[in-house]
Amino acid sequence: MAGSEKRPRRTKFQSDQDELKLRAAYLYYVEGLTQEQVAQHLDISRIKALRLLAATREDGTVQITINSQAESLIRLQRNLEKHLGLTEAIVVPASSQDEESVAAVVGHATGRYISEQVTNGLSIGVGWGATLQVCMRSLIWREVDDMTVISLLGGLTHATAHNPSAVAWRFAEFYRTELYQITAPVFVPDRELADALWKQDDLKQLYERARAVDIALLSVGDVGTQASIFRRGILNWSDAKSLKDAGAVGDVLCHFVDADGNVLDHPVNHRAMAINPADISRVPKVIISSGGLRKIHAIRAGIAATNAKLLITDVAAAQALLELPPLEQAS
């Protein structure tokens, strides 16, 4: 037609290059071959394979999309990291806000994550809670040498499956490694006894070990009627009321903290045979594993109290945390 532009005719070389590019893209993006395998399959150099794959992205031959559900989770995680000053947030969907359902999914994700962190020579401090109990059932075995587990809390004189020190014991047993325990009840009758116990050489040494761990794995509790620490009779309901009246929003390692993560000057805290959360704020990696809408204030306070850089939680809690004031952490 008159006035129409004539497209340049494609050469056989250009057609061959396009076909090669498409084949490379299919092998790499659809079949999942490595760049080296693509090069071998097409009988070209690895550099040429790399250039072909780069070209498919640049000219639109390959357009990458992310599953919408996965994309929304990633966006939620990134927003949470910025909002709470975290290095990493892991957010998992929970089918309901039932405590067992949330603990199951968050605990499972925690077990998978912490299993990847287990290495020779690692020292890890371990807290307690329903989520961490589930975490212990999701660990992946690997053989490690010279690893040390430190329980960050005392125990109960009447031992049960919910004994605060049991989580660390199970972790150490699973990986067949050394365990250091606080050989005292998690709460003693008065401050004087707690002070005297902490002066014992073995407990002083354990405290120093706890402050020097490579990783601290914790959960948090709230100050409500469903909180394990009250429901299981470790502390009584009058303690709960007194702590609430003093401004407590939750407990971190059996120390009750206010909304900004400050450990309260309260008689209950002075009786605790557990590591003070402020004393692990210099640990290189502090992980808080906790979920559920009722715990969001405790989670935020726990991050502030410990300078935690990694949070594992559920979607509903993550979304609710974004509605709370942002948190700036110490570097």
UniProtKB/TrEMBL annotation:
Record-level Gene Ontology MF annotations: carbohydrate binding; DNA binding
Keywords, in A-Z order: DNA-binding, Transcription, Transcription regulation
Gene3D superfamilies per record: 3.40.50.1360, Winged helix-like DNA-binding domain superfamily/Winged helix DNA-binding domain
Family according to the record: Belongs to the SorC transcriptional regulatory family.
Name the record gives this protein: Sugar-binding protein
Species of provenance: Rhizobium loti
Source taxonomy: Bacteria, Pseudomonadati, Pseudomonadota, Alphaproteobacteria, Hyphomicrobiales
